[in-house]
Amino acid sequence: YRGLRTKATRLSEFNQTEIRAMLGSYTKVLFVRDPFHRLIAAFLQGMGISPSFSTFVQEVLDSGTHSSSVAWKPLVSLCRPCHIQYDYVVMFGFLRQELGHLLRRVGLPVGNLLPELTDSQVQWTYRWLSEQMFSELSAQQKKQLAHFYRWDLAAFPFPSSFLSD
Question: What is the pTM of this model?
């Protein structure tokens, strides 16, 4: 937003008039990913020092939304989709087709800007990983995770999420 030259980086540091002006001047894009896949990625990247996925999930559940890690916080607490009207919501797993559409809509050339994405392989891999990791969890942990991410599951279409079941 050209009207404000400041070092503030958080939207909450501006007043409501400035926020409306800024948000009105940008194309707002939200990238979303199945919360269970986000947990798997955080675990595999070593974001927790847990020996097992089940232990890691329990640590996440115990820390709740008070944890400082954005890797597993519910998306609705991070991106405020009820307060910000996003122009585009891009789902992980459909990046190639959605990014091409987005680039065309904002007037950018699609050709060389899109990386080579193999969405179908990513979806298959995460399906397999999800099955393996989900089987490690107790029924109580599964129920708690579904409750923890209930607003994400309600706000975004994750029809094949293990947490939706």
Answer: 0.75
Angle between helices 139-148 and 35-44 (to 10 degrees): 110
Please tell me the distance from the alpha carbon of residue 163 to that of residue 141, in angstroms, as a whole number: 11
**C-alpha span between 26 and 128 (Å, rounded):** 38
- Within 8 A by CB and 6+ apart from 141, the residues are 54, 57, 58, 61
* 21-57 pLDDT per residue, tens: 888 888 888 888 889 988 988 898 887 678 899 999 9
> Which amino acid does the sequence have at 6?
T
DSSP H stretches of helix in 3-161: 16-25, 35-44, 53-63, 75-79, 95-105, 119-135, 139-148, 150-155
Two structure tokens written together for 43: 């675990």
